[in-house]
Amino acid sequence: MTTTSTNSGRPKAGGGEPAARRRGRGSSAAASERREHLVKLAAELFAEKGFQATTVRNIADEAGILSGSLYHHFDSKESIVDEILSGFFEEIMTRYREVIDRGEDPRATIAGLVRIAFGTLEPHRAAITVMQNDWNYLKGMERFAYLTKSEDEVEKMWVDTIKAGQEQGLFRADVDPKLTYRMIRDTVWVAVRWFKPGGRLDAQGLAEHYLKVMFDGINTH
């Protein structure tokens, strides 16, 4: 049975949903869109100026609003960077786990992890830059305790895979797994400083070149 208005016999817009509720939903969507826009603007500033050097006023000026208006969406710039970093770790860890869960041989697994890591350079440039520049500052705050926990989990994924490759004779036994992981990690993350989207190689092309050098070296065979 169709719900109708009391005075016209026509169905109510929105299938009978009260107008106030529809307006509320629209306002909520607009607020969410505005919040997302502010996060993107702040992310660019954090990547350019550094998290500690960027002020709430800088973000508000970039957005064309008063500083007080920013507090309608976030209680502090720490809340903004928290959203940036938590989103990054949630995505990369989910994708890392998917690679691990495939159960491929260690070499294929490491290659998959490398491709994912390089694939984050463009969409998560700000998060990676903040981690490089402000890691020690942020991890001292209780709200960012998850950063160390997440990094430890990521390290274990890589180190366990490298160890498995050594046990299977795929990787050299005379390399330290943890040191190897950290060298790979730092090589990937530092690329965010010079990688330019739209250049000769995209992120995946960069990953393939890195895998070639990592697995095969630069010597002729």
Set out the fold topology.
Blueprint: H1 19-49, H2 56-63, H3 67-70, H4 77-101, H5 106-119, H6 125-138, H7 145-167, H8 177-190, H9 203-216
Please give a structural write-up.
- The chain has helices spanning 19-49, 56-63, 67-70, 77-101, 106-119, 125-138, 145-167, 177-190, 203-216.
- Helix 4 runs parallel beside helix 7 (145-167).
- Mean pLDDT is 86; it is low at 1-14.
- The chain has a domain at 77-216: Tetracycline Repressor, domain 2 (Orthogonal Bundle).
- The protein contains 9 helices and no strands.
- The chain has 221 residues and is mainly alpha-helical.
- 67% of the residues lie in helices and 0% in strands.
- Keywords: DNA-binding, Repressor, Transcription, Transcription regulation.
- This is TetR/AcrR family transcriptional regulator.
- InterPro entries: Homeodomain-like_sf, HTH-type_TetR-like_transc_reg, HTH_TetR, KstR2_TetR_C, Tet_transcr_reg_TetR-rel_C_sf.
Strand content: under 5%
Mean pLDDT: 86
Count of strand segments: 0
Query: Kindly, what is the distance between the CA atoms of the first and last residues, rounded to a whole number of angstroms?
Result: 77 Å
Briefly note the CATH topology name of the domain at 77-216. Answer: Tetracycline Repressor, domain 2
Short characterization:
This protein is mainly alpha-helical and 221 residues long. 67% of the residues lie in helices and 0% in strands. The protein contains 9 helices and no strands.
List keywords for this structure.
single chain, 221 residues, mainly alpha, Tetracycline Repressor, domain 2, 9 helices, 0% strand, elongated, disordered N terminus, KstR2_TetR_C
